[in-house]
């Protein structure tokens, strides 16, 4: 009755037991995920080290470790401790936050164009920040706080406007987001217009996304929110995978789709808003990290952590390139944008050849 | 082998989308351990009925009871262990392998961390064996043909190992060969494990052949229910589909078969049909 | 779907209301300025004047501005309809093929490296930027199987817009003087128009409108689906290309002479689509009309609010348009994007 089929897993591994076949396949995929995540982690570590060691003066590892341990090392304590360390931490956590939140939006909205920028959330933060910089001429601290609150309020507004009593409509969310984004961009344009010339560079820099001038005391909110929300997002990873199958399939599998969606969106929005407050909106990281991570690890399991790591790598690498590749220092937001779009076009061309659309 | 019995009832269901009412006070009971098919013309509400029964759509009034308990009060994961649904146009998640996708059907049975137990592997392997896709286990789903993909989706619903399975047009867009194959596989499932199957099928003759029980819906109302031999009459077909027809006995399965009468090609003698028995002149 | 009537429902009503609004916008645009003209003065001013008097001068300026606004609005309205048809995406803005960003990049580079500073120079740089970018995006979107499908065009446009935006910022950041200059170009204003630029815009508008009307039946068929359209004898690839290029010409020329004006194209088409349905034979002319009304109306509002200066129309349209769009999104049944 049962035909003994031989299942070929790899050139050297064959089996007749279907369960072993399935299990081996899963183990191989799992191994790939772990390997990629491991490599990304090492890469991130290396980039962190580079951020601390490189600069006008290159400090050896010994000195860096000494500073981290709290010792006073002449010269290094200031350069590494006060300037480079916060910069590195901001880049790491903000990159992670943007990567994760972009991945979540793209997976939930099932749209590769989705990211906090596209659906108008970061434009709320940006508008508020530009207002603070140009009109109120406020300090960086105030600007940060205001922009977080503005980002959160904007997403609340978008969510409430796109709610419908019967169903959650992705199309409506996108339209409302675009409407809000247009209004915020309008505000930004207006403020840039009436602003005095000397306040323009600060505004433009904020809008581009940069790690310049980050201080240690700004970081706790970002680090704490990441440490709390990222584990929550990871725990919801499996539910996210079910949501990926569509509303009906997810519900029939027993997922409480509305609750899960709300939790994921709120978490993604909060970390994106806080990261934006500290570094400004770093273009493309939220956009790119997800697709890159998924292609590296293979789809099938939740990729929140790899997406975050890719985001961190992009920001840290982008900042290093921006600082040292040319004589002018460019903020990280420009570099990631210039890497990002050609990558996307490359993706498009590759996909187009495969005939996916 | 004794099968698990469940009593699945709907009472006075009124349901629809936004302001439109589609189901108009429908009451029914799904026969346990049998294959039931919901038939009706397009847009009569059969898909809406299926989705409401499967708890995808919340009814505006009326209740649905599983073993006496209203299903909306049963926790989602717990319900998902008993009732499963194959949606009509499942969304393809890019790049996922067949085994992983089928494995997602195990979600209601798994712990928070989602590691696969021995039971999970067995369920997935069995589902894939029934749908004959075991050798495709490690292939990405976008490489498969439409017929293969549909089998994967059904395997995912099977891996859920529910006692009751709802399927919304599982055979649409497939070749006739695949249609028969899938319906036969579902019959295997029912005969082997006693799974209660409720399907919406668009092909009336396949419905008559494979169903143990039929529900006929017209404009949101249940107009007939019963065994195919009792339900399929030319009067009912005229009532539900607006089609003139005659009923003959399917020579392969002895189930009633609808032979439509159009304006052309009606040559000579039309056999008289009496209930389920037919005399062919 | 019963489409037994020759004209869409409510066509007469919508047309009537639009014409009335049109006249109101026209008259108020002429009437408003450093000081309001009263109605008799306005009517007096409409009669031919001696060319030397001060009021004739003012009237000429206002006529220029009004006509400029009407033409730009009409161009954007038609461009919006064309791009939405080509990309089969209700989110498509006239600038979806990266037209505005391409224009901006060339203008910024001109400001930074060639030190251009006059509006006439901006126009030519913007025009060439728009053209090259559109061709580039359309080219990328056409690669691979199926040619330039709607989705590919949208993604190619979005990616290119992102890349070019980054480049623009990269050029601007070390050069504050460019930031300073650019912000005025970038805002989109009807007040910058001269008779020369209007004359430059007109041929684009006329040709673009004619092409659009000519393509309308084919685009109607295209909306039914690729295979259906081909089955009806429509040369889908060619039609898409022509319609896209017409849209680019309309949007590019408007951006070149007035700066990038956001949202008018999107809004005008959606309002008319909601009222009159998707038949392009009506959608195109009515969107032109509504675009003209919206733009001129926004300009008048901008002049009133920003008096004695102006609040540029590029700022006002979003505030006028976005709430309307959001309201539409909330009320209408939004099909999945």
- The oligomeric status of these chains comes to heterotrimer
Q: Write the H/E string of chain C, N to C.
A: HHHHHHHHHHHHH
Global geometry of chain C: globular
Helix-residue proportion of chain A? over 70%
Give the H and E element order of chain A: EEHHHHHHHHHHHHHH
Largest sheet of chain A: 2 strands, antiparallel
Rg on CA atoms of chain A, Å: 22 Å
Largest interface: A-C, 55 and 55 residues
**Average pLDDT score of chain A:** 81
Structural class of chain A: mainly alpha
User: Can you give the mean pLDDT of chain C?
Assistant: 81
Q: In DSSP terms, counting alpha (H) and pi (I) runs of 4 or more, how many helices of chain A? A: 14
How much β-strand is present in the residues of chain C?
A: under 5%
The gross shape of chain A turns out to be globular
Distance between the termini of chain C: 22 Å
Count of beta strands of chain C: 0
* Residue runs with pLDDT of under 50 for 5 or more positions of chain A: 353-357
Write a structural description.
The complex is a heterotrimer of chains A (about 350), B (about 280) and C (about 325). Chain A is about 75% helix and about 0% strand. Chain A is mainly alpha-helical. Chain A has a two-stranded antiparallel ribbon with strand order 1-2. Chain A is globular and about 75 Å long. In chain B, the strands form four sheets. Chain B has a six-stranded mixed β-sheet, with helices on both faces. A four-stranded antiparallel β-sheet of chain B has the order 2-1-4-5, covered by helices on one side. In chain B, β1 and β2 (about 20-30) form a beta hairpin. In chain B, α3 (about 100-105) packs parallel to α5 (about 145-160) and α4 packs antiparallel against α5 (about 145-160). Chain C is mainly alpha-helical. Chain C contains 13 helices and no strands. Chain C starts with 10 loop residues before the first helix and ends in a 6-residue tail after the last helix. The chains are: A mainly alpha (about 350), B alpha/beta (about 280), C mainly alpha (about 325). Chains A and B meet through α1, α9 and α10 of A and α2, β6, α3 and α4 of B.
